[in-house]
């Protein structure tokens, strides 16, 4: 089978230099800020509901507005980043989401909060297209998934740091929630300055040695410079990525939005107050993100094909989610925390790997659009999940068994779909470049 063949190694090129990892550090910081900004409203929900008189339906409408705008924002921002490049495109995205974040501090009604969330979502949708596009510029194929794994791990760092950040501003400095939204907007301003100052492509950076540049650029030259939307949507390879995201992204949304409710109903624990369980679970997910990216890269460096490395890593990640089947009904909360943490690690390992696939198949100037298509599909899947989970819980009296079982199956279905749509993960071919 093609998946078992070995890859050729580029002769005469050795790993050199470390500057490219400073770009990973910059993207890590950006991811952390991104997730702090999107998570703050959820932690403030009880206070805002009491102060502003929100009903559960009101808050649900605000969340839905974010998810809807986030899904469609991927299509817009993915194209924008391909059109203007990651430096300009991501700067625009940071500016938009920072404006949306600060706008929360001036919101007075459900509608104004919805508008603020929509602006935030549109900007934040540019994050992962920028991450993958920048990684494709700064890392060769055999190292790229490891770099993305490190950046992807910052998603949970941002979630973990949100509560301490809010404590710093609201308790230590004594600000109200409005001032907290406004002043934490400075994180986005600082990030924007850092991005514009420090990011460029390797050849223009002036900080990359010739040996490191040779390592970064040692992959075979791309046969196509750019593929437009009209070509992308006709390619099975693009839909392979989109289907994988549609099936698996909802699991992450489930964990973000429903874990607090599960621990409250199953163990009487409020994860907003008792932080240790959340910290353990999300730190385990960070390990999964990094290890998943490392395994995929290591397999390629050892001579395996990209096809073998990516798909075997994703299958292994799916196996890590299987213990989720044992969680429902467990009396020991700490065992449940470990098993859920292992499942989160599996998801993040899968996520780091699947995010590496578009640069494997598409030219750099099309990567943002392909990531955008996948992000859109994942967002739609997340919206379907939100509705479905609520109905299942209502029908079963709050039993999560069916939900957790479904989560364990989707990763294997996703790998099967990816393999059917792109059996070799080979670079796409087009008749003409757009």
Please write out the topology:
Blueprint: H1 20-52, H2 56-103, H3 110-124, H4 127-138, H5 141-172, H6 177-198, H7 202-205, H8 210-216, H9 229-232, H10 236-267, H11 276-301, H12 306-321, H13 333-354, H14 357-361, H15 364-396, H16 401-421
Helix pairs in contact: 1-2, 1-4, 1-5, 1-6, 2-3, 2-4, 2-6, 2-15, 4-5, 4-15, 5-11, 5-13, 10-13, 10-15, 10-16, 11-12, 11-13, 12-13, 12-16
Task: Give a structural overview.
The chain is mainly alpha-helical. The chain has two domains: 201 residues, MFS general substrate transporter like domains (Growth Hormone, Chain: A), CATH 1.20.1250; 215 residues, Growth Hormone, Chain: A (Up-down Bundle), CATH 1.20.1250. 76% of the residues lie in helices and 0% in strands. The N terminus is likely disordered.
């Amino acid at each position: 089978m093609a998946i078992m063949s070995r890859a050729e190694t580029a002769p005469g090129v050795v790993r050199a230099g470390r500057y490219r990892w400073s770009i990973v550090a910059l993207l890590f910081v950006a991811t952390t800020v991104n997730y702090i900004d999107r998570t703050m409203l959820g932690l403030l929900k009880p206070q805002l509901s009491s102060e502003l008189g929100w009903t559960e339906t009101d808050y649900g409408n605000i969340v839905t507005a974010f998810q809807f705008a986030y899904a469609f924002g991927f299509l817009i921002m993915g194209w924008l980043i391909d059109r203007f490049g990651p430096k300009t495109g991501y700067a625009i995205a940071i500016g938009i989401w920072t404006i949306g974040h600060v706008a929360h501090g001036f919101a007075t009604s459900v509608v104004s909060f919805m508008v603020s969330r929509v602006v935030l979502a549109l900007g934040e949708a540019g994050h992962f297209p920028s991450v993958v596009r920048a990684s494709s510029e700064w890392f060769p194929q055999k190292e790229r998934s490891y770099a993305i794994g490190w950046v992807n791990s910052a998603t949970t760092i941002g979630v973990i740091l949100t509560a301490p950040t809010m404590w710093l501003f609201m308790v230590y400095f004594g600000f109200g929630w409005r001032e907290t939204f406004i002043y934490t907007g400075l994180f986005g301003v600082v990030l924007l300055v850092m991005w514009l100052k420090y990011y460029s492509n390797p050849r223009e950076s002036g900080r990359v040695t010739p040996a490191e540049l040779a390592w970064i650029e040692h992959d075979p030259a791309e046969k196509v410079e750019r593929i437009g939307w009209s070509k992308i949507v006709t390619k099975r390879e693009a839909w392979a990525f989109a289907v994988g995201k549609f099936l698996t992204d909802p699991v992450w949304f489930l964990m973000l939005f429903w874990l607090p409710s599960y621990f409250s109903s199953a163990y009487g624990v409020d994860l907003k107050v008792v932080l240790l369980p959340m910290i353990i679970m999300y730190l385990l997910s960070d390990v999964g993100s990094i290890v998943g990216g490392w395994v995929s890269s290591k397999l390629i460096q050892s001579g395996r094909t990209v096809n073998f490395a990516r798909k075997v890593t994703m299958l292994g990640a799916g196996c890590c989610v299987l213990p989720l089947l044992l969680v429902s009904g467990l009396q020991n909360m700490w065992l449940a925390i470990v098993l859920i943490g292992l499942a989160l690690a599996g998801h993040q390992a899968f996520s780091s790997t699947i995010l590496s696939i578009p640069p494997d198949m598409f030219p750099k100037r099309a990567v943002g659009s392909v990531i955008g298509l996948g992000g859109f599909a994942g967002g739609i899947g997340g919206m379907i999940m939100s509705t479905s989970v609520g109905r299942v819980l209502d029908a079963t009296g709050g039993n999560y068994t069916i939900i957790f079982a479904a989560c364990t199956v989707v990763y294997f279905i996703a790998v099967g779909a990816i393999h059917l749509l792109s059996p070799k993960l080979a670079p796409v071919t087009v008749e003409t470049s757009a």
